[in-house]
Every structure is written in C-alpha cells, then in structure tokens.
Amino acid sequence: MIIEYLGLSKIDGSLVMLDGVKGASYDEMVELKLKDGSSRTGRIVQIEGERVVIQVFEGTKGLSLVNTRTRMTGHPIRFGLSPEIIGRVFDGLGRPADGLGEIYPLLKRDINGSPINPVARVYPKNYIRTGISSIDCLTTLIRGQKLPIFSGSGMKHNELAVQIVRQASISDSENFAIVFAAMGVKNDVADYFRRSFEKANVMNQVVMFLNHANDPIVERIMTPRFALTAAEYLAFDLDYNVLVILTDMTSYAEALREFSSSKGEIPGRKGFPGYLYSDFASIYERAGIIEGAKGSVTQIPILTMPNDDITHPIPDLTGYITEGQIVLDRTLDTIGVYPPVSVLPSLSRLMKDGIGAGYTREDHSMLANQLFSAYARVQDAKSLAGVIGEDELPDSDKRLLEFGKAFEARFINQGASENRTIEQTLDLGWELLSMLPREELDRVDDETIRKYYKGQQTPSAITA
Amino acid sequence: MMKNSLIYGVNGPVVTVLGKTDFAMNEMVFVGEKRLLGEVIKIEDDRTVIQVYEETSGLKPGEPVYATGAPMSIMLGPGLLSNIFDGVANPLNAIRDQRGSFIPAGVRADSLDGTITRSVHMLISEGETVEGGKIFAECRETASIMHRSMVPPDVSGKVIRVVPDGEYTVHATLAVVRDSAGKDHELSLCQVWPIRTPRPMKKRLALSRPLVTGQRVIDTLFPIAKGGAAAIPGGFGTGKTMTQHQLAKWCDADIIIYIGCGERGNEMTDALTEFRELTDPRSGRPLMDRTVLIANTSNMPVAAREASIYTGITMAEYYRDMGYHVAMMADSTSRWAEAMREISGRLEEMPADEGFPAYLPSRLSEFYERAGYTENLNGTEGSVTVIGAVSPQGSDFSEPVTQNTKRFTRCFWALDKSLAYARHYPAINWTDSYSEYLGDLADWYKENVGEDFMACRGEISELLATESSLMEIVKLIGSDVLPDDQKLIIETARVIRVGFLQQNAFHADDTFVSPEKQLKMMQVILYLYHKCREILMRQVPISAILSKGLFDKLVQMKYDIPNDQLSKFDDYYRMIDEALAEPMIREAAK
Questions:
Q1: Quick one: B401 and B473 in the same domain?
Q2: What is the mean pLDDT of chain B?
Q3: How many beta carbons lie within 10 A of that of residue A439, not counting itself?
Q4: CATH of the domain at B432
C-alpha cells in the first residue's frame, strides 16, 4: 500500500519537513509531486517520531506547503545497472542526459554501497603506465589506487586528466572502462572532457555523470555515489578495470557545507561539517581490488585548492584518505612547464610494492629516491642563490641548479600527447643524474651506478 | 525479561528513544529489526540517546530496541592473536565467509571461534582457594604465545570442581568457583570485559626498561619506556603509518595490538599480508602470531571507530594481565577524536575548540593512562605501551588533538614535512621531538648496551643542535665562509643525518638495528669527528681531510656492515687511522 501525504509543514533551503508520517525509514527515497504535475526526488535525512526531514535534490523552488504530494518509496536511493550504461551520459542523479532513452536495468543497487571488508581486499601491485615521466617514475599510479590531483584554478589539471585517461587506455586496453563524474564543473569544461574522450576514441568506454555548476547542489552530493556504484558494478560484476575521474571535489565539499549549514549542524574547520572526513572516506574508499573479482576501481579525484593552500580542509582531509597525491605547482605552470607537477610534495603510497624488477625496472626505486633527494637540495641551493646571488654559489650548488633546470625542462616537462615508455622515463632520469658527481648520489648502490650512471666516475678519494 | 523500548528518532548514527526507560548508561543494546549494535550514551528524563555502531540506513521509528543489561563488552580469550577484527570485535574473516567481500549492516559473528578445541593444561585443583586474576589454565594460542586463562578479576572463592587436562573449546566450563556468598561461577578459557573500564591491577611500577624498536632515531635519540605512551604527529605523507608499521614489526614487545582507526583499507590489507610473511626475529614464527589487528577503516561506521580504541586497549590489558609486554599502536587517534566530535555534534552538545567536545582532553587522558608497567593481580609483571599517531589538520601542531595528546604522553616524535619531501625516513624531526623517558632509561642503557651510550647520545644530539644553528648562517651567506671547525661540524652532522638517523625500512639489514650496533655506529662517527678536530688544530685545512672520502664511507656503513658481523667496525677504525695518518694528511694538504 502506498500512502501519499498531502502538504508540507516547513520549507527551509533544500530541506522540507513533513509531519504525521508513519513508517518512514531513515535514508529512504521519497518522491514529491508538485501542483503542475512535475516530480522531484528527495531523501529522508532525519526522523523525530512522526516528523521527517527530507532533503530535496532538485531544490525546493516552486514547492508550496499545501499542494505538494509526498510519497515514500520504501527503499534507499538506488541506481539501475546493466552493461548498457557504458557509453552513456547521465545527469547528477543518474538519469540519462544524452537523449538516447532509458536504461533497462538488470539490477538496482543502493548508491551508498557497503564498505569493502579489509580481509577481502587484494593489495594493489600492478602499475598503470600513464606515459608521463613525473607520474610514472616519481608517483607511480597503481591499479586499484586512489591518487588525487591537487590543483588550483587556472592550472592544467583537466588536460592532465585527459592525457592520463588517453594514455592509460592504450597501455591498459584490456577491458578498460572510464567512469567520469563532473560535480559543479562549468558546462564548457564538461564539454571539453566529452570532446577529448571522443577525440581519443574512448567514448564507447566511458560512463559520464554530469552535474554542472548551475545544477542543484544537493544533486551534487549524490553524483559521485552514482558514479562509484556504476564503477563497482563494472569492476566487480563485469570484470572491467575502471578508472574513475571525479572532478571537482572542491565543489562537492562546498555543496556539502551548504547543505550542512542549512540543516543547522555545528560546523568544524572553515565551516565544513565535522563529518567531512567520514564523508570523503565514503567516496574515496570505494576504490581497490577484491578477492575473486578480475576488475579493479582506480580513482583520480581532482580538486582545486582554494587559494593554492594545501592546508585547506579539502586537500588536507583528502590527503589523509587517499594513497598519495599529485600536486600541481603555480610557478612551474607560469614558466610553461606541462604538466606542472610539483615533485616534492607529490607522493604515491602504493608505488613501493608496484615498482622494481618484475614490475618496472630494478633501478626504479633507487632512481626515484635519488631524484627526490637531489631535487630537494636544488630547492636549498635556489633559496641560497636568492640571497647571495647565483655567481657567489659554490660549484656544487651551481651544478645542482643546472641539474634542477634540466630536470624541470626535460623530465617534468613533456608534450600533451607525448607518451613515454617506462624505459625512456627511467633512462632520462639517469641521464639527468649523470650531471651530478657520483659522491653526491647517496641513495644508490655501486652496482646500479655501474650499470646506469653515465657521469664522471671520479675514483673515490681514498686512492687520491 | 527486560521491557523493550521503541525507536523515536534517527539522525545518522544517533537514535533516540522516548519516555522513561530502564536502560543503564553505556549499556549495550540492539537496535531495530536488524539488531544493529548500539550503546546508550545519554539518558534524560524524557528520552534516551543511543549511538549505533552500524549503518542506520533503513531504520524506522517504532522498531524495537533490545536491552542486554550489560555495558558494551567484548569477549577475551584464545583466538584473538593472528586475527583481524572490526572496531567492536567482529572477526572480519568470519564476516567475509558469511556475507562476501562487502560488509552489510547488521552482520555479526562471535569474536572467538567456538568450534576449535585447544589442548588445555589445568593449573588449579579442587579445594584450592583462588582470587581474581589467578592463572588457572594454559593453552597454546599460537606457536609463539602461551595463553594463560585467568579467573575474572571480580571472582574469588573455593574451587569446587575442575576438569582434567584435555581438549576443550573456548566456551567449555573448565572449573567452578564458589564464592563466600555461596554463588557458583563457571570458568572457561574466555571471559567478558566492558571496554570502557580499565582492567584492575595490583600496582603500577616505575618505568625502567625501554621498548627496543631497532629504529635508530627512536632508540638512541628519543627512546620510549615499556609501559610508556608516545605520540607521532604528522601531516599526510610524512610517514606516520610507515613508522607505526615499523614499530609493530620490530619492537621487542611480546604482543602487538594494531588498531587501524579510520584509516585506509588497503593499508590494513598491506599490514595483514606483510605480518603473515615476515618472521619475528625472536621466535622465528610469523609476526602475525603475536599480533591482533583491529581494522575500522575510514568508511566503516563512525561510532564503531570511536569504540575501536577501547576494544584495542582492553585486549592489550588482557594480555598484560597474563604477564606479557604489550605494545599497542593506534593509527590514528585523530580519527577517534573526530568520531567523538561527529557524535557530539549530532547530540547538539556545546562545542569547545574547533568543534571538538569539551570532554576531549579527559577522554584522551583516560585512554593514555591505561598504559603502564604493572604488577598484576596474579603477581606477574606486564606492560602496555601505547603509541598513538596523530593527524593534525593542515599539519598544524597547535590544533586541539595534538596539543592535548602532548599533555598526556611523555614521548613526542614529531614528523616533519620537509624531511619527508626529501625522502628522509623516518621523518622524525630531531629538534622538535623529545622523550621524557631518557632519564628513567639511562641506567638500563648503561648496563645493557654500553657505559658510554648516554655520553655518545648526548654528543650526537649536541652536534645536531649546533648544526641547525649553523645552517641558519649557511642559508644566508653560504657555507664557504665558515671556519674549518664549523665546516667539520656540518660535515659530521651530515653523516649523522644521512648515515645514522635516516634508516631504510626496505633494506634487509637496515630495517632493524640492535642498540649494540647503534652504539658502535655512533662511536665510529664520533671517533672520526674527534680525530679530525685534532688534525684541524694542527692547521691542516679541512679540504685535505674531506678529500679522503671518509665521511661518505661512514654514510654507507649502515648498508656495508651486516647486523651479524659487528666486528667489521674494527676495519673502519683502521681505515680512519690509515687515511688520517700524519704523512698521508700532509701529502693531501699540499
């Protein structure tokens, strides 16, 4: 028996309150019918006896206290799934938005998912070759990882994401699918992604979920959950290796803050709700590989750091959950280095087990460590040069500066369609390290030096 | 039969029941038709508030709430070791076998497998009088650990029945004790204990032995005592989890309780597989044999995350009572504090700093005070060492969780972003970190490692301190202008930083280094330093010394000297003496 409730008790922002409701369950999906016959979807976010609080996804504009009819559906929000979803475009609430008609679902899943049992996880170890030196060598992407891009407004994160998708799809062609969720992005940015996917010929492998900047914010909170439900279905039911791009997590978090404050919740840091961490985790943790399934979910969330501030709660809490981060740097971007990856704060936590002999090459880990440590010293030399001038620097620091320049111009910098093999990347790394004397390379052992180092092997001073 | 109440309101993990109820504070309850696990956290005259440890999606008002009459408790007994649990002690393997790869709400399994029988040796006889804490039976829990079953702390009396040695399950009655009131208590291998109540002990003992971790920067510079508490604060990517894993692998505790509190799922999988593969250098058995993992990952229910810390420390105290040294790692206590904040927010309590509840400091202090070196009820000695990671928001150590943790721990290992960026691990900053246990442990180091350990340590830390003030100058004007003796300090400090403090967790020898080897490394470094200083006094330029490459040799010694060939250190003294011999150095000076 379906009961419809006529009228509402209160409307406040995106929330409506309804009294006298019996048998409503927490988190249940509801349908609201307006006077003009159009309908909206909502979700129960709080119950106090017979009073329920409903969050309305499409916004409360046009709702009135008298003429609205509310119907409980008896289940949480679900997404209808079938293999047909591949190649389709949906809106932020999982409704087809490409004019190609409805999906006939084989099954429906609760979009909130369930946590993966840690004992059922398989520890990710296979690397994905992106063809980008700074990522492949220094922050290696592993299949099943969640590796966000920390960017800032106006930097080339979208180009980088597209390049990763395009080049990873070549190296990872077997059963490869892309789930793309846009949250609060501008229409032309969404369009850029669509065109780029078409140009790269991967459109028939993409599932898109688009919540534009002018779409309701409450929908935005649901968008990544629809996308990840689709991703989990493709990965764990249909054996696809799925790459999920979530952009822009900053808009998502701001939508959450707006919603939280309209609910009258006590704010934490910078007005974001205290549960921002748990909420982020419920999105980011939906990545990985599980025992017995052939597929995997790899996530590349993109976020723009407000004011380029990495300590802002959004990048900060993201970094605590994700397995590393790729940080973009405004200075590199300004001097025209693409991709402007800021090497030192970037990190891939899973790379330690996914590189080396059998995966990439045996020297990879030592080379990466040495590049990090040498480039960290370049920064010291740079700041010293800023004080006393480059000419006054000791020779060792001058050499470092030269190395730093070459490293930025040749290693980090590469073409937007340049797809380097892992050997090319590693060899390039050694070529650059060879600009430095052997004694300054303290992270590599002698054997590796003999094999790859091309610089002057000044005989050790013991014999001098 | 207790009367059940009905759900009135639902708000996230918080459920309210209307009217006067006979629930007790902190009583464990089952909520709704799915019987979700919950705990009573607030009782007012007209309503009772329950926090639910599972996803509340689908709960309806009017569904029943079942009372249990007991506070939130867990089952303790053989079978905890080498197992992995969620925050409220459900074994995750059993849950996977029941329900597959994902964890749905309302799923539950017994913490201890009741079907396994163990060979039990009884240690009491009929007619004997026993007190709480008395070890009455033994069985082998894992190949390396003997499980000592104890009379529950609140039971004492005369043994009126005992079974013979044999094979028993955890729930089988092994003995019956009649107390002074004439009431009979059945004893089995397991017992139930409320997680928020510290297990009793006879008395606290002074902390005088270190927890040897094999990590040079910790054992040498900032040691922690067995029974002490330490905090590891650090922003993301600074290596908190790596450091915790290293400690869990190599510290010389008998039992490890590792809590993944609101952290990443893949990390727990990593710990689980790695601890199974690695062998404990002391017992030769897999590390997992001495380890309990508690995994409440960040996307698992938030209330269970709050409970996971208590579940872990209760298990730790249980093994302490058997006379074991237990080390508990909590990664991360900030997530625990945030779970408190989240629940507190739902209860609309008045927030203090940054939205955290005002009772945050008292909860933290209660928790850290459960660490200690104790004489137990049964006369054995044991300890619980607590090492809590802290994840300060925005890497800002002035935030409430870091600041309050600092007040209740005496050891502070500050992780540093710039060290981590340069891939200097462990990224423990030597100027910001401290250990108040140093004085307590000085005697132990003197007796067990070397008479001059503390003197060497003092000189090393002084050199580092001098270097950091010299670096202030170098940053402004470069190192060329420094006098030679200061250049020598900078060069020596480099060896200490790169060759000693930096430690490679992935290198077979370097991942764990005994205090003896740590001392020998310090001695060689200081020998070189003193020798060079002497030579400088004779007006020999430092470039002559540096051209010998001795410093770079010492940087590499951590890799070049295997842990079982400490006699190789003699070669280094010989090498230094030869290279710096008078004629050689005069030659180089030309």
A1: no
A2: 92
A3: 14
A4: 3.40.50.300
pLDDT tens track for B346-386:
888 888 888 899 999 999 999 999 999 999 999 999 999 99
| Count of domains observed in chain B | 3
Work out the average pLDDT over B305-326. Answer: 95
Cα separation, A21 vs A4, whole angstroms: 10
Asked if pLDDT for residue B588 goes beyond 80, the answer is: no
Reply yes or no on domain A80-353 having CATH 3.40.50.12240.
yes
Alpha-carbon distance A192 to nearest alpha carbon in chain B (angstroms): 32
Question: Touching check for B504 and chain A: CB below 8 Å?
Answer: no
The CATH code of the domain that includes B546 is 1.10.1140.10
Q: Measured between CA atoms, how close is B342 to chain A, in angstroms?
A: 6
* CB-CB contact of B308 with B339 (8 Å): no
B107 domain residue, yes or no: no
A329 and A341 Cβ atoms separated by less than 8 Å: yes
Q: What pTM does this model have?
A: 0.91
pLDDT in tens, A331-365: 999 999 999 999 999 999 999 888 998 889 999 99
Task: List chain B residues with CB under 8 Å of A286.
Answer: 299
Last residue of a domain, one of B437, B461, B478: B437
H helices of B452-549, in order, are: 453-477, 484-494, 515-537, 542-546
CB distance B18–A266 less than 8 Å?
Answer: no
Min Cα distance B98 → chain A (Å) is 12
**pLDDT tens digit string along A310-324?**
999 999 999 999 999
Q: Phi-psi region for residue B539, left (φ > 0), alpha (ψ -120 to 50) or beta?
A: left
| Residue of chain A whose alpha carbon sits nearest to that of B399 | A269
In A, which residues are within 8 Å of B417 by CB distance?
A: 345
Contact present, B313 and B292 (Cβ < 8 Å):
no
Gyration radius from chain B CA atoms? 28
Residues of A in contact with B10 (CB under 8 A): 26, 46-47
CB contact under 8 A, B268 and A118: yes
Write out chain A residues lying below 8 Å of B298, CB-based.
Answer: 277-278, 281, 284-285, 321
Asked if the structure places residue B447 within a domain, the reply is no
The pLDDT of residue A457 is above 80: no
What SS3 class is residue B458? helix
CATH 3.40.50.1370 for domain A4-76, yes or no, is no
Among B39, B30, B32, B34, smallest CA distance to B10 is for B32
| Range A411-427 average pLDDT | 94
Does B370 fall in a domain? yes
Structural domain contains residue B113? no
CATH code of the domain covering residue B66: 2.40.30.20
Task: Specify whether B266 is located in the same domain as B234.
Answer: yes
Q: Which domain holds residue B10?
A: 5-71
- Is the confidence at residue A408, as pLDDT, over 90? yes
Q: Chain B residue closest to A388 (CA)?
A: B477
Answer yes or no: do B426 and B290 share one domain.
yes
Q: Is residue B65 domain-shared with residue B213, that is, in the same domain?
A: no
The 10s digit of each residue's pLDDT in A145-172 is: 999 999 999 999 999 999 999 898 877 6
Average pLDDT over residues B17-43: 88
**Closest to A207 measured CA to CA, from A169, A170, A234, A237:** A234
Residues of chain B neighbouring A110 (CB-CB closer than 8 A): 57
